[in-house]
Amino acid sequence: MSDDYCAAPAAPTTAPDATDAGPPFAECVLCRKPTEYPESYKGITLCPVCEWQEAQRTACPG
């Protein structure tokens, strides 16, 4: 029986190229970190953390 199933995956041989990161992303309006939205997105852009905190703040109590 082989123990390959439990073996750790091989580490990548090269670091990901910065050009493969995808389109430029808009900055969060609160913390300036990259968001999931493209720069061309119209409206308020929040990073996932700030978006979650804003949802918690505006949620109905109870």
Major sheet size, sense and barrel closure:
2 strands, antiparallel
The secondary-structure element order is: EEH
Query: What is the beta-strand fraction?
Result: 5-15%
Shape: flat
Low-confidence parts: none
Helix content estimate: 10-25%
Counting H and I runs of at least 4 residues, what is the number of helices? 1
* CA-atom Rg in angstroms: 19 Å
Strand order of the largest sheet: 1-2
Structural class: alpha+beta
Measured distance between first and last alpha carbons: 55 Å
Tell me the number of strands. Answer: 2
Summarize model confidence as the mean pLDDT. 79
Layout of SSEs?
Elements: E1 25-27, E2 34-38, H1 48-58
Antiparallel strand pairs: 1-2
Polypeptide structure, described:
The structure is a single chain. This protein is α+β, with helices and mostly antiparallel strands and 62 residues long. It contains 1 helix and 2 strands. The chain has one helix at 48-58; strands at 25-27, 34-38. Strands 1-2 form a two-stranded antiparallel ribbon. Strand 1 and strand 2 form a beta hairpin. The longest helix has 11 residues, at 48-58. It is flat and about 50 Å long. The mean pLDDT is 79.
